[in-house]
Every structure is written in structure tokens, then in C-alpha cells.
């Protein structure tokens, strides 16, 4: 057996110290005299433009080197993993230290110690993030909270607010386009356009993101209600939109999503689609007076996100 002990340390190029001019303490009279003489010499010379430009630059650099003092600049925060936010915390820590040192008050010293711990934690986190990016290049990619996949926006908190916002905006935009361009068409043509262009967007993958919060349900239903008024050409406040939808034969979208979930569960139970059923589908092996062998065992859930996901929610509807 071979045992390897490795010590992985990130390599970085430390910036070299550089010289900078201290313009607060120059010899202005000498600089002025040198510049006047330099301009006179360049003007009276018969050289080319390129040579004059080169001589001007060299003359200015020579004058500055002779008449302006310099100092060596060492970059204080040269570590590559120190971001601007971390540097601000470090500077804040130094200010609190100086204040606590001057005043000697316990509250100032307490603030310094508290901020010192927070700064050390931020530096450690920044260092480990830097090391992880070196060891795993995939971590260099920008982290996002929402990401589209097959037309559905998946969020890191497993909520569907971002997806609902996007397709509701798209459906509203399409409905507005239809209302502007098909306002003089007959009812059948308007209904066909709505079903093809708008409702198809609202129904897409409804078995996955079917919302349970009433605010999301109402927002989606409001799009179909506006479409019903448009198709029936009835915008009166006293008119019943429910009657219009019943006349058109439109079911509420929440009911359509419920039916879609039940259809998909039927296909899963009967092996008509390639969706694994382990840990989700289990028939009731002990029927009673109020249940039968076709019913499925309910899934326990500790969070609302899982409780209202596809399998737990649809199994309840299946057993009704």
C-alpha cells in the first residue's frame, strides 16, 4: 500500500514594488526652467516628428527624475483572493483598532474584536473559494439562482416564482398581440389563436410547476379570464366571466393542470412512460371499507415544497 501526503498551496505572482512620484514635494522652479529649455531645443531642431516626440518624452522623464522625489510603493493587499469587499473589511478593522487604541474605551475595543472576527472569517472564506476554483475549474463559472432547462426555469430554492413570472409575461405579451391584430375577427378565429398561442404557453410542463399558492393561481387564471372577454367581445363590468368560460367550454387552468397530473400518474403506474417509481409509488395492500387496492399510499412531507410537488400532490387526487 502506497500512502501519499500532498500539500496543495495556491501559487500566485506577488506584485513587485514600484516607484511613484511624490508630487507634493517637487522643485517647481527647476521643472519649469527645464521644460522651457526642452521646448526651445525641440522647436529649433531639424529632426522628424517621431524624433521630436521621443526627445520630448525622454526630456520630461529626465526632469521628473531630477526634480520630483520618489518613494517605493508596496501593495498592501497583494493576495489574489482578497476581493474589494474583503479589503474594505480589513481597512475598517484597522480604523477600529486605531480608535480603540486612542480612546481605550471598552465599547470601542469590543467593536474592534467583533469586526476582527468577521474579517478573519471573510478572509478564510475568500481563500477557500480561491483554492476551490483552482482545484475545480468548473467552480469558476458564475453561480446563478435561476437556470432554464427544457423551457422550465429551475430555481435554487426549488420555488417556481421565476418560471411563473416569465411565462405569465410571455403569455400577456402574446395575448396583447392577438388583441391588437385580431380584434375584427370572428369568435372562432380568436379562440383558435388563444388556444394555439397563449394557452399552450400556460399549459407547458404544468405537471412540473403546478403552483399551490393562491396568488400564483389567480395570476395565471387572470390571463385566461381576459382572453375570454376578448373572444366574447364583452368588457362590461356586470358580465360574468365564469359564464363566458362555460359558454366557450374552457376549464379553469388549475383544473387542466390537475387533469394533466392525473394522466401522467396513470402512465407512470402502468409503465407507459420511463419514469422511475421507487420510493414514490406503492399500492395499498390492505384495503378497507373506504379504500381499495387501486389506491396508492400517501407520501409524508415535512416541507410545503415537497408536499405540493408532483407525487405527493397527485397521489392525493388519485385516491379521491
What would you say this structure looks like, in words?
- By secondary structure, this protein is mainly α.
- It folds into four domains: 26-68; 84-140; 148-258, no CATH class; 267-318, no CATH class.
- 58% of the residues lie in helices and 5% in strands.
- The strands form two sheets. The protein has a two-stranded antiparallel sheet.
- The longest helix has 30 residues, at 106-135.
- The radius of gyration is 36 Å and the shape is elongated.
- The chain starts with 17 loop residues before the first strand and ends with a helix.
- This is Reverse transcriptase domain-containing protein.
- It comes from Mytilus coruscus.
List the main descriptive attributes of the protein structure presented here:
320 residues, mainly alpha, 4 domains, two-stranded antiparallel ribbon, two-stranded antiparallel sheet, 12 helices, elongated, Reverse transcriptase domain-containing protein
The radius of gyration is 36 Å
Strand order of the largest sheet: 1-2
| H/E element sequence | EHHEHHEEHHHHHHHH
Quickly count the domains.
4
Proportion in helices: 55-70%
Largest sheet: 2 strands, antiparallel
Q: Count of helices?
A: 12
**Overall body shape:** elongated
Which class of secondary structure composition applies to the elements? mainly alpha
Number of strands: 4
Intertermini distance: 61 Å
Organism: Mytilus coruscus
Protein name: Reverse transcriptase domain-containing protein
Amino acid at each position: 500500500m502506497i500512502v501519499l501526503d500532498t500539500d496543495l498551496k495556491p501559487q500566485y505572482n506577488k506584485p513587485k514594488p514600484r516607484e511613484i512620484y511624490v508630487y507634493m514635494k517637487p522643485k517647481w522652479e527647476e521643472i519649469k526652467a527645464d521644460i522651457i529649455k526642452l521646448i526651445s531645443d525641440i522647436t529649433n531642431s531639424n529632426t522628424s516628428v517621431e524624433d521630436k516626440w521621443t526627445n520630448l518624452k525622454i526630456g520630461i522623464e529626465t526632469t521628473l527624475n531630477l526634480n520630483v522625489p520618489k518613494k517605493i510603493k508596496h501593495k498592501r493587499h497583494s493576495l489574489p483572493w482578497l476581493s474589494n469587499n474583503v479589503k474594505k473589511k480589513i481597512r475598517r478593522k484597522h480604523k477600529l483598532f486605531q480608535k480603540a487604541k486612542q480612546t481605550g474605551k471598552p465599547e470601542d475595543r469590543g467593536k474592534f474584536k467583533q469586526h476582527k472576527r468577521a474579517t478573519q472569517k471573510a478572509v478564510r472564506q475568500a481563500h477557500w473559494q480561491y483554492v476551490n476554483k483552482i482545484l475545480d475549474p468548473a467552480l469558476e463559472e458564475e453561480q446563478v439562482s435561476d437556470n432554464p432547462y427544457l423551457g422550465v426555469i429551475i430555481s435554487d430554492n426549488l420555488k417556481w416564482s421565476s418560471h411563473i413570472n416569465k411565462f405569465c409575461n410571455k403569455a400577456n405579451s402574446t395575448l396583447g398581440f392577438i388583441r391588437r391584430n385580431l380584434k375584427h375577427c370572428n369568435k372562432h378565429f380568436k379562440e383558435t389563436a388563444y388556444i394555439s398561442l397563449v394557452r399552450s404557453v400556460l399549459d407547458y410542463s404544468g405537471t412540473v410547476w403546478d403552483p399551490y399558492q393562491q396568488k400564483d393561481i389567480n395570476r395565471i387564471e387572470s390571463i385566461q379570464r381576459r382572453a375570454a372577454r376578448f373572444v366574447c367581445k364583452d368588457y362590461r363590468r356586470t358580465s360574468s366571466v365564469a359564464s363566458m368560460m362555460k359558454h366557450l367550454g374552457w376549464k379553469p387552468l388549475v383544473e387542466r393542470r390537475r387533469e394533466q397530473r392525473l394522466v401522467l400518474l396513470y402512465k407512470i403506474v402502468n409503465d407507459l412512460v420511463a419514469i422511475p417509481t421507487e420510493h414514490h409509488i406503492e399500492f395499498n395492500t390492505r384495503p378497507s371499507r373506504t379504500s381499495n387496492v387501486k389506491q396508492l399510499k400517501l407520501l409524508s412531507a415535512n416541507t410545503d415544497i415537497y408536499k405540493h410537488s408532483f407525487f405527493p400532490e397527485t397521489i392525493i387526487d388519485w385516491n379521491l
